[in-house]
Design brief:
The complex is a heterodimer of chains A (112) and B (114). Chain A has no helices and eleven strands. Classes of the chains: A mainly beta (112), B mainly beta (114). Chains A and B meet through strand 5 and strand 10 of A and strand 5, strand 9 and strand 10 of B.
Chain lengths: 112, 114
């Protein structure tokens, strides 16, 4: 299967700071998805990207689909306590089936 | 309220016991999925089903079984053959299960071994 590398693994930041995380894949894909998982809950979709170069915002979140179609980044501006959780990138299979491959996640902790 | 309901939230398994995790959705989605999540790892696909009475193995199906008798329900059985069952189990569903179909997740079941 494809390799999907997500970094950093964890981040410790102060409230109000901006956050940036990224994912890279070994293959080209047509869609990038970003999910957030709150502690003890299931992941919730944040942003879906469908076109190379696409930049999409959702409130304080901004995500971009890399031009090479092998990478994506997610930025969070002016972090707040409820941003705590694990952020996953995910890629659907290129073969038109249902399989999603998830990154290993970026765990965000906000230091008081 | 439309959504995916997983139960129970917490489950304990004794040695040699089979346990079944419930997943129900009222989103009228055709496709349903089961994932396993271990600490520090991403989600790994156990089984998926694109239509009633049909299901396929995912990447880590050994020691698990599923059924899809109804569109709304996709229960997962963790059998005694699964030697390391302690994990967080997540159920998801999507409209059709093809292409860039968005998957929506339940709140999860945490399984521990006594």
């Amino acid at each position: 299967g494809q390799q999907l590398n997500q970094s950093p693994q964890s981040m410790f930041i102060q409230e109000g700071e901006d956050v940036s995380m990224n994912c890279t894949s070994s293959s080209i894909f047509n869609t990038w998805l970003w999910y957030k998982q709150d502690p003890g809950e299931g992941p919730v979709l944040l942003i879906a990207l469908y076109k190379a170069g696409e930049l999409t915002s959702n409130g304080r979140l901004t995500a971009q689909f890399g031009i090479t179609r092998k990478d994506s980044f997610l930025n969070i501006s002016a972090s707040i306590p409820s941003d705590v959780g694990i952020y996953f990138c995910a890629l659907p299979s290129n073969f038109g089936n249902e399989k999603l491959t998830f990154g290993t996640g970026t765990r965000l902790t906000i230091i008081p | 309220d439309g959504g995916i309901t997983q139960s129970p939230k917490y489950l304990f398994r004794k040695e040699g016991q089979n346990v079944t995790l419930s997943c129900e959705q009222n989103l009228n989605h055709d496709a349903m999925y089961w994932y396993r999540q271990d600490p520090g790892q991403g989600l790994r696909l156990i089984y998926y089903s694109q239509i009633v009475n049909d299901f396929q193995k995912g990447d880590i199906a050994e020691g698990y079984s599923v059924s899809r008798e109804k569109k709304e329900s996709f229960p997962l059985t963790v059998t005694s053959a699964q030697k390391n069952p302690t994990a967080f189990y997540l159920c998801a569903s999507s409209t059709q299960g093809w292409g860039a179909d968005i998957q929506y997740f339940g709140a999860g079941t945490r399984l521990s071994v006594l």
